[in-house]
């Protein structure tokens, strides 16, 4: 296997002065590299840039970077006049400021490890970010896409709601509804954060509460497993509460016990959801064991009857306040379960 050739900035300048077109294979660049006065096509394959690599000033014709590693890649105040490719690259810091990509921009299977910054960037033609990984929060609010953009299998977090909306919109234009729904959920989470700030300022409390409940119950209609978990948790909790109520003598005991059981189920379920390392249905299994042991309802007959939100109407039995709250909650969760399944299987 050939060793990589080491090149510094002075030597690179001399090389570039000798030829009109250059292709660099398996090279190591130890010093800062600046292409500020060059206007010709370059190709870099399996190269390592150990310091800052800068492309700036005027118009440039840079062709491709394939399998390269960058400590810091910076494009500033430049118009790229041809298709530019970054494929299978690894970049520690990627900075774009005042850049106009006049032809196709390809950023495929490339990883950004620490920082990405896009400030006043224009993509005049198609832009591809397929199967890339960005270990920083992506902000697209200062970018302009004039034509199609593709974020297929992009792994990243978003810094704001507008960025999630831009990525979601690109998937919707391609009729990729499943991927669009994932970024719709991120868009809703960012909206929830905005409402959280409003709540701290004394505004939009009820709108924040609705968003919070929607997120906890189904991840904004994206996670049917989460809805099913809540249905089982509430149903076991209510069924257990019904068994306990038969042993109580006073209304005060009844009210205090029901309140405690409701709050315990909700609080424990939220803890399990937030603690992502623990399987949600582990808690459901504990609820089942605890319920069956105390109620002796081994066939889950009482549990199954309680699970039906319309059982009161079919049985013509009396409705107390706790039962009403439970039935409304279960009806809402079943609705979220259906919507979440539909969101992950529907066609546009």
Describe the structure in your own words.
Helix 2 packs antiparallel against helix 3 (177-200), helix 5 packs antiparallel against helix 6 and helix 5 (224-245) crosses helix 8 (301-307). This protein has three domains: 5-159; 170-214; 223-343, no CATH class. By secondary structure, it is an alpha/beta fold. Helices cover 45% and strands 27% of the residues.
Helix/strand order, N-terminal first:
EHEEEEEEEEEEEEEEEEEHHHHHHHHH
Q: What profile does the largest beta sheet have?
A: 11 strands, parallel
Task: Compute the average pLDDT.
Answer: 80
Classification by helices and strands: alpha/beta
Gyration radius (Cα, Å) is 29 Å
Number of domains: 3
**Anisotropy-based shape:** elongated
Keywords: Membrane, Transmembrane, Transmembrane helix
Transmembrane segments: 224-248, 254-273, 285-304, 324-341
Short description:
With 348 residues, the protein is of the alpha/beta class.
Keywords:
348 residues; alpha/beta; 3 domains; eleven-stranded parallel sheet; seven-stranded parallel sheet; 10 helices; 45% helix; elongated
List the topology elements.
Elements: E1 5-7, H1 9-18, E2 22-25, E3 27-29, E4 33-35, E5 42-45, E6 48-56, E7 59-60, E8 64-66, E9 69-80, E10 84-87, E11 90-101, E12 105-108, E13 111-123, E14 127-128, E15 133-138, E16 143-145, E17 149-150, E18 155-158, H2 161-173, H3 177-200, H4 205-218, H5 224-245, H6 251-274, H7 280-295, H8 301-307, H9 311-315, H10 321-343
Parallel strand pairs: 1-3, 2-5, 3-6, 4-6, 5-8, 6-9, 7-9, 8-10, 9-11, 10-12, 11-13, 12-14, 13-15, 13-16, 14-17, 15-18
Helix pairs in contact: 2-3, 3-4, 5-6, 5-7, 5-8, 5-10
